[in-house]
Amino acid sequence: MQKRTLLDGKKFQITIKRLCHQLIENHTDFNNTVLIGIQPRGTYFADRVHQELSEILKTTSIKKGHLDITFFRDDFRRKDGLVTASSNTINFIIEGKQVILIDDVLWTGRTIRSAMDALLAYGRPERVELMVLIDRRFSRHLPIEPNYIGQQVDCVDSQKVKVSWKEQEGEDKVVLLSEPSILK
């Protein structure tokens, strides 16, 4: 397995900070904007964005939640064994709000479609924007594009993007994994 590091260390932190400044440009004070991290991996990213925005704006009033999409996925019945969902931690209504959906990697768009369906249980937002750390272009199954992108990666379906979070794996890092090509 070949590895190529896309983001790590200081560059990882700078990317998050840049994305936060882009959010501030578009949402100013966040009075009508909420952050929603898509479980499982988007929650780490959402927590980081929330923390950074709170520090930059010197406020504790930015609303943030975590959204589980397990039973909204179109493939959840295809998995072997019992499917277990995580709990949602959204203690506010999103009716009429600007929602920033946050996930670590955008690949086919199916996760985002599921999240949009799951969001409706909390009200009808005025607008939904998408923020991703990594955008795997050219792999979409659905016409979904992010509004805020940490880094775009052009890769084939056989390659895998792995995001490691300090909170879970002990380091902040994004790597592109590829099978070595075998030429005969």
CATH topology: Rossmann fold
CATH architecture: 3-Layer(aba) Sandwich
Helix fraction, binned, reads 25-40%
Briefly note the structural class of the backbone.
Answer: alpha/beta
Low-confidence region ranges: none
Number of domains: 1
Overall shape: it is globular
How many beta-strand runs? 8
Q: How is the biggest beta sheet arranged? A: 5 strands, parallel
Mean pLDDT: 91
β-strand amount: 25-35%
Distance from first to last alpha carbon: 18 Å
Overview of the molecule:
With 184 residues, the chain is α/β, with parallel strands linked by helices. The chain has one domain: Rossmann fold (3-Layer(aba) Sandwich), CATH 3.40.50.2020. It has four helices and eight strands; from the N terminus they run E-H-E-H-E-E-H-E-E-E-H-E. It has a five-stranded parallel sheet with strand order 3-2-4-5-6, sandwiched between helices. It has a three-stranded antiparallel sheet with strand order 1-8-7. Helix 1 packs across helix 2. The model has no long low-confidence stretch (mean pLDDT 91). GO terms for molecular function: uracil phosphoribosyltransferase activity.
Topology, element by element:
Elements: E1 2-8, H1 9-27, E2 33-38, H2 42-57, E3 63-67, E4 98-106, H3 110-119, E5 127-137, E6 148-154, E7 160-164, H4 166-169, E8 173-178
Parallel strand pairs: 2-3, 2-4, 4-5, 5-6
Antiparallel strand pairs: 1-8, 7-8
Helix pairs in contact: 1-2
